[in-house]
Amino acid sequence: MSSRPVRAALLSVYHKDRLAPLVQLLRQHGVTLYSTGGTQKFLEEEGAEVVAVESLTGFPEVFGGRVKTLHPKVFGGILHRRHEAADLAEAESHDIPPIDLVVVDLYPFEETVASGAAEADVIEKIDIGGISLLRAAAKNYRDVLVVSSREQYAAVTELLEAKNGSTDLEDRRQYAAAAFAATSHYDTEIFRYLSQGTAMAGAALRLSEGPATPLRYGENPHQAGTFYGDLAALFDQLHGKQLSYNNLVDVDAAVALMAEFTDGEPACAILKHTNACGVAQAPTLRNAYLNALSCDPTSAFGGVIIVNKEVDADTAAELNQLFFEVLIAPGFAAEALPVLQSKKNRILLRQKPVAFPAKQVKTLLNGIIEQDADRQVELAADFRTVTQSAPTEEEVKALEFAGKICKHTKSNTIVLARAGQLLASGVGQTSRVDALRQAIEKARSFGFDLKGAVMASDAFFPFPDCVEIAGAAGIRAVVQPGGSIKDADSIKAADELGMAMVLTGVRHFKH
User: Fold this and answer.
1) Is residue 11 within 8 Å of 34, Cβ to Cβ?
2) Rg of the chain over all Cα atoms, to the nearest angstrom
3) pLDDT band at 393 (very low <50, low <70, confident <90, very high)
4) Within 10 Å of residue 344's Cβ, how many Cβ atoms?
5) Exposed/middle/buried for 385, CB within 10 Å: 0-12, 13-18, 19+?
6) Residues near 18 by Cβ (< 8 Å), separated by ≥ 6?
7) In Å, what is the CA distance from 388 to each residue of 20, 121, 172, 259, 477?
8) DSSP state, 392?
9) Do you find a cis peptide bond into 211, omega within 30 degrees of 0?
10) Are 213 and 231 in contact (CB under 8 A)?
């Protein structure tokens, strides 16, 4: 039969919140309730009659609760096939009652790891009985409904209410799939924890991200798109339409860039297609925004903006004059929000402090590549002066600033800046010379005088041509990784032009 009534249920949950309405509904339908430990106590406090699992099995909980439900009478009640005469006869001969509903909320392993708990405490949060119950019930979805998360309690209550205490095969199949998704994710997190720092033979990459958020489309309207992850943990969306695939890609780039400017004075970055078209720091957030905007007001149209301070009313008034897609900030002043919310589709995100993964993954060909996130940044202490002229204190600040932006810009890239302000960048060029020429042309087109400015390159100069072109444009100091067999040629060119050059020894390609 496709439709099956729930006559007996096993409930064993870690979190008891949200469970009461489902319990009351099961009581109304006269469902026999089996349970253990804390869940049994909760059910009895709700007024339910409960059959203790140890009464069913004839065996007590042992090893401090590590073994409670692992018994043939429990798993037999879940797994025996109601349409198989032999299974029914065997269940009857062993006095195994059928269990039609299994409700399990697993021990919070992932949360315990995130809390920084000791390893012994983490290991105790590896659920054995619960995950086995979920798998058993999901396997036998033909006869059993499985509930694998407290997020499902309300929906299951509505389902059973609507169908008078019964479920259809398609209902049970859907919840079975969700249960296997839960157990798969759970096992993945355990694997990731236990495999840290180990060299495993035949190691495999295991990823599990959720929940799934369908997007309007992917990069283009003819491509479907889905985001897997918990956006709510990172942002409160205060206004605007749903984030798109391209919005998310740009937001990711914006958040990564602004992570370089968490301390110190107010900062603002404006991004378009993952590259910064304006970055600035200033004593006020309003001025930081205006300086960032002046870098390339043409590209800023329709971009993503991120700031590192609460948006005040003065800044909001300036921002409101520009059409942009997304604004990300750690906070919004009460008087600023109504101004920014005046545009219906404008997306406003309040960013929460969240630790990002130490690894990055990307699909490639018929597989996946993984790498460490680029967390390195080079500051004055990392600079090695290789020219006769050393950079001034102001130039060092500008070189630090330019290097941070360069790290987050598509290769090949050249960044031109002063202390606290991006002047222009050449991004994603096949030639570093082209990147430099693009940056110089952009800077001049928006009225910037490059005399005394600095230049940052994401990789070394294979020839002295970039140094020569930069010197002719007025650039006075350069930061680059070094490492070319012709470094001496670039250094010599800088000396001849009276420029300062520092090497970092660290390349920051971004493909």
Assistant:
1) yes
2) 30
3) very high
4) 8
5) middle
6) 150, 153, 154
7) 76, 59, 76, 34, 12
8) P
9) yes
10) yes
- pLDDT tens-place string over residues 427-455: 999 999 999 999 999 999 999 999 999 99
CA atoms within 13 A on the CB side of 244: 16
Q: How far is CA 414 from the centre of its chain?
A: 29
Rounded Cα distance, 373 and 356, in Å: 9
59 DSSP assignment: -
Catalytic residue among 29, 163, 185, 273: 273
For residue 265, is it left (φ>0), alpha (ψ between -120 and 50) or beta? Answer: beta
340 close to 226: Cβ distance less than 8 angstroms = no
Place of tokens 């060029």: 429
- Both tokens of residue 48? 């339910």
**Planar angle of CA 275, 402, 389, nearest 5 degrees:** 150
Is 233 strand, coil or helix?
helix
The 10s digit of each residue's pLDDT in 333-357 is 999 999 999 999 999 999 999 888 8
* pLDDT single digits (tens) 134-167: 999 999 999 999 999 999 999 999 999 999 999 9
Nearest residue to 151 (alpha-carbon basis) of 114, 181, 113, 120: 181
Q: Count of CB atoms within 10 A of residue 420's CB?
A: 19
The single residue listed with the structure tokens 């460490």 is 372
Angstrom distance (rounded) from CA 309 to CA 280: 13
**422: nearest Cα among 396, 448, 441:** 448
Q: Is 94 a catalytic residue?
A: no
Q: Is 273 an annotated catalytic residue? A: yes
139, 163, 185, 492: the catalytic one is: 139
The 3-state DSSP composition of the chain as helix, strand, coil percent (nearest 5) reads: 40, 20, 40
Read out DSSP for 250-307? HHHHHHHHHGGGSSSS-EEEEEETTEEEEEEE-SSHHHHHHHHHHH-HHHHTT-EEEE
Contact at 8 Å (CB) between 428 and 438?
no
Cβ proximity of 276 and 405 under 8 Å: yes
* DSSP for residue 244: P
Is the backbone peptide bond immediately before 412 cis, with ω within 30 degrees of 0? Answer: yes
The single-letter DSSP state of residue 108 is -
CA dist 78 and 68 (Å) reads 15
CA distance 288 to 266: 7
Q: What is the pLDDT of residue 55?
A: 82
Q: What predicted TM-score, i.e. pTM, was given to this entire model?
A: 0.80
